[in-house]
Design brief:
- 41% of the residues lie in helices and 19% in strands.
- With 425 residues, the chain is α/β, with parallel strands linked by helices.
- It folds into two domains: 3-233 and 402-417, Aldehyde Dehydrogenase, Chain A, domain 1 (3-Layer(aba) Sandwich); 239-380, Aldehyde Dehydrogenase, Chain A, domain 2.
- The protein has a seven-stranded parallel beta sheet with strand order 10-9-11-8-7-12-13. It has a four-stranded parallel beta sheet with strand order 5-4-3-6, with helices on both faces. The protein has a three-stranded antiparallel beta sheet with strand order 1-2-16, with no helix packed on it.
- Helix 3 (35-51) packs across helix 8 (163-179), helix 6 packs parallel to helix 7 and helix 7 (138-149) runs parallel beside helix 8.
- It is globular and about 70 Å long.
């Protein structure tokens, strides 16, 4: 425990206030630095992660070992685990963010009023952003890089599952920032796992400008219920893949397997498969999933396709499994699929597989989710895959930002008004 944590262990409100004040002071410096300086510091942070890879992987091994002792599921262990390739991906992600166009200072719109006033809206950093997340240690680097690139400071509170990994990653990241001449306090981590610290973050209005939760349903629900600070969040990734009657059978099979099983524990994984009643050989898709190691919980029509299917309960249609489990149903057509999605989707990512372009366009138009796809795996629901470098999360609400939230979603704007002495009548 750090000296700050020890001195404030019995007063989490004071701890968060102290961290937030330090972060805000760093952000005032950060917002005055050039885009080139911020990008260069991030490149140095990525180099430092590579240089410290042995220490980071040793810290991660402690977390993985503790997670296995605690009985974490295979999917959760997969979310937690780092290796050389994944750590290189984290470092490369930081570099990708550094090389993205800087949104800060962008002129969104401009106009000149009849009275001669010149108006413009310009992107600016939000300020100090609190990120509360669970077992994925890559979030530490992704969130830190995105915040710094957009001129924001970050206050991170990771889960206990990844505590050693998070601290090791952040130590390297901060060293890179400081080497680049930026304040290390631009990115801080809450140095205690006391749950009261989360509550203190949620009520730190005036100190923290926005909270971004990344984790399970219980975490996000708590944040949305208790927060007195604006929240950018999604609850679940209850994602659907609808195999239309005009789908290519091989494509439908391949997309279904990839969407569910590539990484079952990520929020972009398919959780429900809907198959058109007129699709040829639906049993082949179901059998391919089961043969690949996926448990299928189906409605009565799906259960008749393969005796290895177990009956789905009413709760299955609203469950984010984050594991090699999928619910499956036969639907009568596009309208039935849309009705099912409207009832059960979490507005994260929904997919149609079809060679009928008119049906595809109807699906893309009528499904009201943050991400809607045609003939592609829902596993592409990722900021990096969208060319955003990295993401701080996928927002499923309707305000400010939606879908993968990257640099632009971490800015707000201000009005600049330039006059020549005008007074209002």
């Amino acid at each position: 425990m750090t000296a700050l944590a020890a001195s404030s262990a019995e007063n989490p409100v004071q701890l968060i206030a102290d961290l937030a004040k330090a972060g805000r002071a760093a952000q005032r410096i950060l917002r005055e630095t050039s885009s080139e300086a911020r990008a260069a510091a991030l490149i140095l942070a990525a180099k430092r992660l590579r240089a410290d890879s042995s220490a980071i992987l040793a810290a991660n091994a402690k977390d993985v070992g503790a997670g296995r002792e605690r009985g974490l599921s295979g999917a959760l262990i997969d979310r937690l685990m780092l290796d050389e390739a994944r750590l290189e991906g984290v470092a490369a992600g930081i570099e990708a963010v550094a090389n993205l166009p800087d949104p800060v200072g962008e002129i969104i719109s401009s106009d000149e009023r009849p009275n001669g006033l010149a108006l413009s809206r310009v992107r600016v950093p939000i300020g100090l952003i609190g990120i509360i997340y669970e077992s994925r240690p890559n979030v530490t680097a992704d969130a830190a890089a995105l915040c710094v690139r957009a001129g924001n400071a970050a206050l991170l509170r990771g889960g206990s599952e990844a505590v050693h990994s998070n601290h090791a990653i952040l130590s390297a990241f901060r060293a890179g920032l400081e080497q680049g001449g930026l304040p290390g306090d631009a990115v801080q981590i809450v140095p205690t796992q006391d749950r009261a610290a989360v509550g203190a973050m949620l009520t730190a209005a005036g100190l923290i400008d926005m909270i971004v939760p990344r984790g399970g349903k219980s975490l996000v629900e708590r944040v949305q219920t208790d927060a007195r600070v604006p929240v950018l969040a999604h609850l679940d990734g209850i994602n659907h893949t609808y195999v239309h009657r005009a789908a290519n059978p091989a494509m439908a099979r391949d997309i279904a397997i990839n969407a569910k099983l590539r990484r079952p524990g990520i929020c972009g994984a398919m959780e429900t498969l809907l198959i058109d009643a007129a699709f040829p050989r639906p049993e082949a898709v179901i059998a391919a999933l089961i043969d690949a190691g996926c448990a299928v919980r189906g409605d009565a029509a799906v259960a008749r396709l393969d005796d290895r299917v177990t009956p789905a309960s009413a709760n299955d249609w609203d469950t984010e499994y984050l594991d090699a489990v999928v619910s499956a149903a036969i639907v009568g057509g596009l309208d039935d699929a849309l009705a099912h999605i409207a009832r059960h989707s979490s507005s994260h990512t929904d997919v149609i597989v079809t060679d009928d372009d008119a049906i595809a366009e109807a699906f893309l138009s009528r499904v009201d989710s943050a991400i809607v796809m045609h003939n592609a795996s829902s596993q592409f629901a990722d900021g990096g895959e969208f060319g955003l470098g990295a993401e701080i999360g996928i927002a499923t609400g309707r305000l400010h930002a939606r879908g993968p939230v990257a640099l632009e979603g971490l800015t707000t704007y201000k009005w600049l008004v330039r006059g020549t002495g005008q007074t209002r009548p």
